[in-house]
Design brief:
about 400 residues, alpha+beta, Transposase Inhibitor Protein From Tn5, Chain A, domain 1, 2 domains, about 40% helix, about 25% strand, globular
């Protein structure tokens, strides 16, 4: 065994027996990465996972490598594993989904969006994008992730990278970034449906509610009808301009969602929060239909449109739900889970290297997302592991 492998193995043996690792990291790693076909792939997956958990600050490959070995060749091995090694993102995320499902997650599938700023124009999917949260136009990648909720904890179990048409229609770009021929352009709503479909195949839960913020998606109508066609209940933040039809007004004309809900009286309700607390919320709501594809007539069952009114009487996000006959407090509690999704993404950026991928390829991006998702899931569900002293981690037995 060469020096790099000896030192890496020494650090990983310590990680496997680390106090506070319940269940041990080696059992988690061997389960999540069991479908990687080669022994060296499984070894480097475990090494990278351990490095993500013990490396402080930026999670560059070089910093991760230095946490598990003094040999500089380890960084190249980890970089090759992430960017070039042929292993299947879907198989890893399927095992991660099963692991989380064993912890009895709540019946809510939350979908969140993340903006990943980038320099230059070579990273796969990078483009100019106006970010409504920051109010700036950024050079960035856009990712969508699906999250399962285990009590107050939300963990990522799948990801999609948005590829603008400038990437999908450029053969040279596709080749350089190793984008598969099977990967087409998809708008945001189509990515959300893809995530729902993949979770449906990985789990046996047919009653899960889809939660997603699509308030900046101009074609959200396609998502809503896609979820209805799949018989999936949903709580979706929608744009203010979404056309809706008030229930119980004969043959109503379509009106914007914001206009309709702003005209409603305010109700006060007690909304349960994910951490077990409760808060008083002031809500406005109305039952609506969605216009069909023919002459603006109503299509399908009634939905509930609602928004929370703040202290200044200004309305917040507009939510549309298929759970029209559930108590408003219950539906409001589901909508409140979206803040947990945002917090999970922020934690992935701050503590797990979501922003730190240095490669440029399509497979590499997905490999990176699988690895940081596994690290986040382990720490969220099983706690932190003990970081060995520097000399212990490097000692060769």
């Amino acid at each position: 065994m060469d020096t790099a492998h000896e030192e890496t193995a020494s650090a990983l043996r310590y990680a496997s027996n680390a106090v506070g690792s319940r269940p041990p990291l080696d059992h988690f790693s061997s389960t999540i990465f069991k479908n990687l076909r080669r022994i060296d792939q499984r070894k480097w997956a475990h090494a990278y996972l351990y490095g993500l958990l013990v490396t402080s600050g930026k999670k560059s490959v070089r910093r991760i490598a230095s946490a598990i070995s003094r040999d500089p060749s380890v960084a190249q091995s980890l970089r090759q594993f992430v960017s070039l090694s042929p292993w299947d993102f879907d198989e890893v995320m399927e095992e991660l989904t099963h692991w989380v499902s064993d912890h009895r997650p709540d019946p809510v599938w939350s979908i969140g969006r993340t903006v990943l700023p980038k320099r230059g124009d070579q990273s796969v999917g990078v483009h100019r994008y106006f970010d409504p949260d920051s109010g700036r136009t950024l050079n960035c990648q856009l990712g969508l992730g699906s999250f399962l909720c285990v009590g107050p904890t939300q963990v990522p179990v799948d990801w999609c990278l948005h590829l603008p048409r400038a990437w999908t229609q450029d053969r040279e770009r596709r080749g350089n970034a190793r984008i598969p021929d099977s990967e087409p352009y998809r708008p945001g709503w189509a990515h959300a449906l893809l995530l729902v479909d993949r979770l449906s195949t990985r789990t046996d839960c047919t009653s899960s509610v889809v939660l997603v913020d699509m308030s900046n998606e101009p074609d959200v109508w396609y998502l809503l009808h896609g979820l209805a066609k799949r018989r999936r209940d949903f709580v979706v933040a929608v744009p203010s301009h979404l056309a809706v039809l008030p229930v119980g007004e004969g043959v109503p004309a379509p009106v914007s969602a914001r206009t309709l809900v702003s005209a409603q009286s305010t109700e006060t309700d007690v909304v349960p929060l994910p951490d077990g607390r409760q808060r008083i919320a002031h809500l406005r709501t109305s039952l609506v239909h969605l216009p069909g594809s023919s002459q603006g007539r109503s299509s399908g069952p009634p939905y509930r449109l609602f928004t929370e009114v703040g202290p200044t009487r200004a309305s917040g996000s507009l939510w549309l739900t298929s759970l029209a006959h559930r108590p408003l407090a219950e539906v409001g509690s589901i909508a409140a889970l979206h803040t947990g999704t945002t917090a999970a993404i922020d934690c992935l950026k701050r503590d797990f290297g979501l922003l730190d991928y240095e490669g440029r390829s399509f497979p590499g991006w997905y490999h990176h997302m699988a690895l940081i998702s596994a690290a986040y899931t382990f720490r969220s569900l099983h706690g932190a592991i003990t970081v060995p002293p520097r000399d212990t981690a490097q000692r060769v037995p």
